[in-house]
Amino acid sequence: MTATSANKVVSRVKKAPQRLSAGRAPSAELLEKALAASTRTIEYILHPEFDRPGIRASILGTYPTGEGPFAKKFRPSSASGHELQSYVGELSFAPLLSKEQEQYLFRKMNYLRHLAALSQVKLAKSFKRKDESLAERLEAFETLLSKADATREQIINANLRLVISIAKKYVNAANTFDELISEGNMSLLQAAEKFDISRGNRFSTYATRAIRNNLYHYVLDKHRKRQQVNLAEDEVLTGAVQEGTNEQICESRLNYVRKSLARIMSKLDEQKQAIIRSRFGLDYNQTPLTLKEIAQGMGVSRERVRQIQTRAMRELLVLAEAEMIELPEYE
Length: 331
Known about the structure:
The protein has helices at 3-22, 28-38, 55-59, 81-91, 99-129, 134-158, 160-167, 177-194, 203-238, 245-265, 270-280, 291-298, 302-323. The chain is mostly helical. α7 packs across α8 and α7 (160-167) packs across α9. The protein is elongated, with a radius of gyration of 30 Å.
């Protein structure tokens, strides 16, 4: 390059900011969109490799080929209705993901959001200066987020069958398929946002627990609200709350817990049943015993009784969840 050419390039570079500031100012609509985008919270799982040089081609490269695991066909009963059968039929066209495909999509989704977060910094600077690059920065930011959302959508679609397999267990007269699927899909979406592939688990394992827990508490909350409504209606019909009603409610609640426990405790072995009954005074007119008192009666150590109690409570919580029984919180 000659000296004259170099001087021209330097001259153009020096004049560039003047041209930008002299250009047309961004519209009010553009400024409003840019402000919203530059202050938007972007949540994602950050991996150290994201800032490694040359990693972009690896993460956004070719999608892994091959088929995912065989999908078990869910055959809804006739009681489920045409609506459920139609929904299940639509899902049959969404292929399941292999482990490699799943990892690829989660890395891609989070990496695109990482790039969007970096792009957001540039967007904020352009918004502050209100220069002519603002529209271009905003478009680049929105494109990255749009691609990330499309990747997440691919993950969700491949795992919607999981929601059906869990939600169908809770369908009854009080809980329709539509509302359970809606709640389950929201749980699946939240699970996809929080899943970290670096922990080595499959997404289905992580999502199953999240969906099951959320649906269980959703059904339980509805049941509790129905009971409250029924109680309120009874109080209106009787005119006023009589003295001692709170005590009656507590006694009724205690009887409910006792009957519920009696139904599921039969599935525990005799030793676990005996410890739970003694520890919490589940038999009528029985005072709860301490771990030490139970240990002395059984001729074992206090620590041994505590271990058996812990295992028994875990089993009871699983059984209670399956039966949709609300047990008191245990720690």
